[in-house]
Amino acid sequence: MQTITTTEDLAAFCQRAAKHPYVTVDTEFLRERTYYSKLCLIQLAHPGEDGPDGGEGSAVLVDPLVEGLDLAPLYDLFRDPGVVKVFHAARQDLEIFQVEADLIPAPLFDTQVAAMVCGFGEQAGYETLVRKIARAEIDKSSRFTDWSRRPLSEAQKSYALADVTHLRVIYEWLAAQLKKTGRARWVAEEMAVLNDPATYRVDPAQAWQRVKTRSNSPKFIAALRELAQFREAYAQERDVPRSRVFKDDALVELASTRPANEKDLGRSRLLLRDARKGEIAEGILAAVDRAARLPADRMPRAEKPRDQLQVNPALADLLRVLLKARSEAEGVAPKLIASSADLDALAAGEREVHALYGWRREVFGEQALALCEGRVGLAARGAQVVTVDL
């Protein structure tokens, strides 16, 4: 196993990889103590045989923690339009490169997304694909490794490298299946979110929308928004987890009680001790004050919760039957086509629904709309459920 520790060796590997149609990529990172992921290891492989003693093998480890190693050759490879960059469950890996280098590898292929399209279930795990496609097993003994510690053992290196060596077989099999079924376009549509840099940026002003709450009170939402914005900006600037500032349950409590001074903060049941004084306390009180000063016409409004929609329960049940029939006919996991919330929204008359766009509309959305509008009904034909014109 070759571990690359110099820029020259990385450049040499990337030059070899650029001669191939694809390269498989994975990363190991830590995020427990920081806001942004700390990149600890990069695994790369291109088609070909692995050298018995490292040498010019087709699979390597790259150690980004080595002082003086410049990842520029890798980023150049990531920009090469002639080489497909293959990941599994790519989102967290891509976030690292977007933050580190303002770069999203392209063209991009995510085997988890492709596996879902090819009938492997809602979220096909890498281990499952290795077993079912590559006909191999993964040694899971190094799964909980602290990847920032050095030196890495041979077992840890083998575990890490397996994340890209088996991926070659998986990618080639899935790519062939997509070509056979004509569903490559489906995967391309799913890649649009991963290819969008905005996917990996958290705007502090929008952070409140990620907090689960049942209250729709404008004053509560205003305080929640300002507090969440302060927490996100504070965490980003200091590269600490947002939970280290204060957790979601404390955020909701603060938005409800809206403390006016440090004495009020001291009464909080959920606020961490360090957050009751100093910069965090000042930030909390300033955020609450900003919310209180907002005029009525600038108060934020929460979206209407799905459980308050006027859902037609009979229609929702029919949509679930239709979804099951269509997912079985297409060999695609139902939740990949439409979520339960999507079905309830359709049954409540909503039309800004994910299932009504792109390939989902073709395989389910058009028939779902026809069912909602009374243009078709459902009928049983043997073991199958089909739509019939009305």
From TrEMBL:
Required co-factor(s) are: a divalent metal cation
Its primary localisation, in coarse terms, equals cytoplasm
Keywords attached to this entry? Cytoplasm, Exonuclease, Hydrolase, Nuclease, tRNA processing
Its EC number is 3.1.13.5
Its Gene Ontology cellular component terms are: cytoplasm
Q: Which Gene3D superfamilies does this chain map to?
A: HRDC domain, Ribonuclease H-like superfamily/Ribonuclease H
One Pfam match: HRDC
A GO BP term, please? Answer: tRNA 3'-end processing
PROSITE patterns cross-referenced by the UniProt entry: HRDC (PS50967)
Q: Where in the cell is it found?
A: Cytoplasm
Instruction: Outline the extent of the HRDC domain.
Output: 217-298
Per its UniProt entry, what is the enzyme's top EC class, as one word?
Answer: hydrolase
NCBIfam families xref list: rnd
Record's PANTHER family? RIBONUCLEASE D
Describe the function of this protein.
Exonuclease involved in the 3' processing of various precursor tRNAs. Initiates hydrolysis at the 3'-terminus of an RNA molecule and releases 5'-mononucleotides.
Protein's recorded name: Ribonuclease D
| Species this chain originates from | Limimaricola cinnabarinus
Phylogenetic placement of the source organism: Bacteria, Pseudomonadati, Pseudomonadota, Alphaproteobacteria, Rhodobacterales
Task: Tell me the name of the encoding gene.
Answer: rnd
